[in-house]
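Re: your question about IF rod domain-containing protein

S., sorry for the slow reply, the queue was backed up all week. Below is exactly what I fed in.
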Amino acid sequence: MQIEGLKERLIFLKKNHEEVTCSLEDTSGWTSYRSLEVKPAVDLGAIMEEMRDQYERDAEKTEKNWKPGSHKKQRELDKQVIWIRKSCVTSKSEISDLRRKLQALQIELQSQLSLKASLEEL
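Result:
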């Protein structure tokens, strides 16, 4: 009973909608389009799977191209980099010390030149 009433209500609403749409088309020149162009959905899962496969192929290729002695060479290079960094830090400290000594010597030189000038005036 209730279902039949709802079906009748649905039929009435569809008919009413159709009449309103037709009257709008007649009075305003407005046209309703009921069909929509639906583009095919993009399968993101497939795209992600393809990207994952490509990444794994690249990783395997890199692993195969990695020479057996490369790990040893890499460790040696890492040691060299560490040594160079330590040397840079030490050199920067030495440069700072030398700059301080230079400033002290310049001040002492100015002092001695001032003393010489004052002694020559006597």
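The mean pLDDT is 84. Helices lie at 2-28, 44-65, 70-121.

Happy to talk it through on Thursday.
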